[in-house]
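If you are new to this repository, start here. Below is one unmodified record pulled from the training split, so you can see the exact layout before writing a loader.
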Amino acid sequence: MDVSTVRAIVTGGASGLGRATAARVIAGGGRVALLDLEHSAGADVARELGDRAVFTPADVTSGEAVAEAVEQARTRLGGVNVLVNCAGIGTAMKTVGRSGPAKLEDFTRVIQVNLIGTFNCIRLGAAAMAQNAAGADGERGVIINTASVAAFDGQIGQAAYSASKGGIVGMTLPIARDLAELGIRVVTIAPGLFDTPLLATLPEPIRNSLGKQVPFPQRLGRADEYAALAIHIIENVMLNAETIRLDGAIRMQPR
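And here is the target side for that same chain:
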């Protein structure tokens, strides 16, 4: 798929990996709908990105809200043929810690946003893509999900986060198989340690220490590097049903 023809929904598009991906799509001549929470910076970011970006607020865990946002995107962009799922949350909690067992509601919330929210956007985004006319090779759309190296190397306190990201990895192949007959590809990116708003809250010495854990290059990943891979996935029609680690060869230690 040529980037200039992209009409993308980017969840979590108001910041971090999502914002960088939206900017790359627009730089390539495409159009983007930023799907993020109502109280996010989505409206401001859309204005900054220019007239080929729109803000379609929604909570990814709500079927009704996402359905409305997808329809708004389809109408305002002139169609939808790409979905990039970047929305997600993280929390740290040991299964049993000093205060007792982990709170079930905290575990549930991470699964609800990261895993179920991703599937919610996939099912509704794919339904919109299925209405597209088939392009080269019969392609109608591309879906890119965001997992994490925590899906494979989960650290102490990451049970919820790792489970949610492992679920995204696990559903990549079956969803790609489900959507193959519709000409919709599904690929997942599993980033390592990236310089995102989540890590930006940490003191600089800790951020530098984390970067030095990466074999090469010895630094945190940059959001634009994620975006570059997302663009390549969009352009390369043979990439399908795969999870790609984007991590500088890091393998996370227990803590």
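Two things worth knowing about this chain: The chain has a mean pLDDT of 96. The beta strands are 7-11, 31-35, 53-55, 82-85, 96-97, 100-101, 141-146, 184-191, 243-246.
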